[in-house]
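Lab manual, section 2.4: Encoding a predicted structure.

Procedure: take the sequence of the chain (399 residues), apply the prediction step described in section 2.3, and record the output as structure tokens. A sample record is shown.
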Amino acid sequence: MKRLSTLSVVLLASCAATGDPDNIETKSGDYGYQAQYRDIEVSRADAGFLKSARLNSEICLPYRGGAYGTKVSGVANTLLGERLSRNDLVEVRIGNDEDLGGNYVVSRDGTLKIPYLPPIRAQGRSTADVERDLNTILVEKQLYDTAPLVSVRVMDVASALVGVSGAVFEPHQVELGGIAGDQRDVGRQEALGASTEARNLSAALRATGGVRPDADLSAVELRRNGRLYTLDLRGVFQGHNMVDVMLLTGDQVFVPSRQCFQDDLMRPSPVSPPGVTVFMSNLTQPATGNAISAIGRNVREMPYGTRYLQAILDLNCVGGARASSAHRSGLLLSRNPMTEVSVAIERDIEDMLRRADRDDYDPYILPGDAVACYDSTLTNVAEVARVLGVIGVGLLLNE
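Recorded output:
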């Protein structure tokens, strides 16, 4: 029985608190990426009331694009409307000429190559621009005495390879629109005037995980053919139409950062993450497995703008018998997207539920975050007792 007594002491000692996570972001007294990361171990009188948004905004760099509504430099009509890109399929009609007319693909060098004619620049231009050039060339080459009726119409919009970097969650080169590579959409080819929203700037930002909360949407940069354009996308969060230009193969998009967390960007929009996937770990007790707690996948999907306490509720960590289930805690594992430093924040769930200022300590969930639940002290003691009973029986049977 001495061995059992010693084992009891060891296991009961394991019920003691293991201490708070060593969070690098808040260890120095600063609040890191979100002001909501601050330590909650303060009195109500010292906590203040709902000031996290102000604290976040105090360190923001000025908008590069200036005040909203001011003219942003570099925006030109060449960005507006539909533009041709490499691999687009177009139909060319020249009067009743069956030799020159036909279906053509915009070449890799961005030109339209029609037999007996010099290449016509098409990349980044409208069909009307190509029609004018084609008319001029036909007359200059004396193939026609007067300009014939010319029609250039898109039959199928190809995919576009675009590079996206800066303050987005997953910067990389993306393929937008089309089916895949050189494949064609036969249905669209049967109807002239094909178009697509899948090659828009907003689609590229969503394809790279969406803009981060520190993004400066006042001066999003678009580089095309050696020229820099600056676009103001703030209207998307203010109920106005954004400058959602059509992108072309070879475009480069860069989203600058304000070096601060902006609470007002944590909501769904055409440029925000389509949702948040969160890795989760449920309680040991009272649930005997994740399936019983309706956690049947590796990750859970949540709306963008979900907070820590909402995620904890979704994980079934809240509620139940107060005597045995109260004073659980939850651990948020995140990563500062600007510094790539991991963040570990533990919150006592009961403290969060009963604080009128809990929003100031209730972080937003970011894509790829993980949330884990820890059982109450009573549940831990009960689990230790159960293990003691199993081991004790085993020891007695061996004697």
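Check your result against the sample. The longest strand covers residues 97-105.
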